[in-house]
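go over this chain:
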Amino acid sequence: MCQAISRVFARLGEKKNRNTARLKFLVNKLGLDEFRKLVLEERKLLPEDPAWTAFLKSLKVTDEKPLKPATALNGQQRPEGFDAWLKTNVYPQSQKGYAVATVSLPLGDFTARQARALADAARKYVGEPMRLTVEQNLLFRWVSEADLPALYGELRAMGLGEPGAGTIVDITACPGTDTCKLGISSSRGLAGELRTRLASRMVAMDEAVRGLKIKVSGCFNSCGQHHVADLGFYGVSRKKGNWSVPHFQVLVGGQWDHNAGAYGLAVIAIPSKRIPEVVDRMTEAFLRERGKSENFQAWIKRIGKAKVRSMLEDLSAIPSHDENPSFFSDWRDPREYSTGDMGVGECAGEVVSPLDFGLAAAEREAFEAQLTLEAGDFRKATDQALGSMVTAARELVMSKTPVGDSRPDIVREFREKFFDTKLFWDPFAGGKFAQYFFSAVENPPQNPGSDAAHRLVEEAQLFIEAVHSCRLKL
C-alpha cells in the first residue's frame, strides 16, 4: 500500500513548486475518493514482493522480557527524596509487581558520563532497553518494584534523580536559537528560566497547576509542540524604534492528551522577558476562577480568547531601550538582539512607522477571526482571516509603493515587489507563507467547516508573522 501511494505521488505530485510538493496538496487537488481510487488501481498492478512479509518473521526481536522477578516495594528502605520522585516519576506497569520509571532530563540534556551511567543502570535493572519520550525524558520499563529505591539512588548519584516528570516543571523545548538556524527566540533559555522559577514553588503549588503542560518552540514550526500545550509559546520578533525585540506568541487551548485532540491558536505576542509574568498571571487566574474539578482546557473554553487577551494585553508593551535594555536581549543570552543602529535623528522619541500601525491592525483582524471561529461562525471567520492577510500585504506593499484598496492590485503588487524578488522568501521555508496568501485569495473556502476555518486562521497568523520578518529586512 505504501508503495502504491508513493508511485501515485511520484506520477502526479507537484514537480515545479517545492512548497506544494507534498502529498496533502495532491489529495486536496484530486479529492480523497479519486486519490483512493488511483492508489487501489496502482496496488493491483504491483507484482508480489517477498519483502512485504519477510519482516514478519523477525517481529519478536523487539519483544521485551523482565530481567528480574516481580517483587513488591513493601517494606523497602526509602532514601531521602524517594517519595517525591516516586509520586511524579513512577507509575505501575500493567504487569503486577513491575513499574515504569521516568528519568527527568531538564531541557532534554544529559552528558556523555551520565549516558554511560544510564546504560549501566539499564543493564543492571531491566536488561538493556530504554525509551526516549516525546517530552524529552528517558523511560525504564520492567523495573521490579523492589529495585526502585536502588535505581533512584543511582539516578540521584549521576545527577538525574529530580522529581517532577509530567508536571508543570517538565517543560518541553526545541533547540531554538542555541543551535537551530530557524530559531527566532531562545526557547531553551525561556524553558530553563521557567523551570527554575516553577521548581522553587513546587512544594506549595496547587495540584491543578502542578499538572499543567508548558511547551516552547523557538519559531512557528512546532518542534517544541507548543500547539498541544496548556500554555504554549513560539518565538517571533517585533520592532521598537531601531531595535528588534525577542517575543513569544502565547497559545492557549491546546490539548496534549487524547491524542492531541485540539490545537491551540496564538492569542497575543509578548516580549520574551515578560513570559514568566504570563505564566504567573494565567495560573493565578485559573486557580481563582476555575469551577470545581474544572481543568485548564475547560476553563479557557469557558472564559474565551478575548478574556485571555485582555488579561495579558498590558504585558505586550515594550519599554524604550534606555529605560530597560534587558528587553533587547534574550533569556540566557547576553548578546543584544538588535538589527543595529539605523541612524538617530534629533528627536529623542522613538519612531513608530505607518507599517507598524498597519501590522497591528492586521493582527487585530486575525484575532477577531479567532473569536468568530470560537463562536462557531466559520464563514465569517475565514472572511476575517483572509481580510487580515490582505491588510498585512497591503501595508507591506505601501512601504515601497502606493496602492489602493483593490484586492487584485494588492495581490499583484505584493507578488511583483516581494514574492518575485524573493524579498519575502525565508531561507528555509522559501515562499511558503506567501503561498498561503495567494491560495486564500485565489481559492477561498466555499462552505468552510471547523477544520478549514481553523487552518485559514492559523495560516493568516503565520503570514502576518512572515510580514513582520520581512519588515525587519527592509
